[in-house]
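Now for a sample.
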Amino acid sequence: MPQKSDQTEEFWRAFARHSGLADADYVVVAFGDSPRMATELAALVMHGTKRATASLVRDFSSPQNPLPRVGDFVVVVDGNGRPQCIYRTTEIAFKPLNAVDEHFAWDEGEGERTRDWWLAAHRRYFGRQAARGGFVMHDEIETVFERFEVVWPPSAADRDRS
């Protein structure tokens, strides 16, 4: 998981000044498992296509990396660590990977945006993660299904789009 940087702090401070949320905090996320994927997926968020993401519950096993909660603010960075936007988590569900539905697959905004495509892609993605992490990947693995709305910058914010 990427860490806060001078760039993310500056980006966050601009949002906090604009929104009056001086006391709020944030986490940093780069989607995917490569710089190229992080940049591609951040672009999907910026274009309004991607409004959901999925992670394995096991990824959130330390106090420094707590499970996401509704209301969390997240700075999305590209593959070079540059902040692209801030989202606020609007919905969290914990369920097996294979419990994904068509609506969530569409909201995640990747590939064909179908459940079949989503499940195949996430089996591969989490399979790579399992190979690196030394755990067994299976269809019942506990997954965090997260939906969000973009709140910053104004040009990408969901509420400011016409």
The first strand starts at residue 27 and ends at 29. The beta strands are 27-29, 52-56, 73-77, 83-96, 142-152. DSSP finds four helices and five strands in the chain.
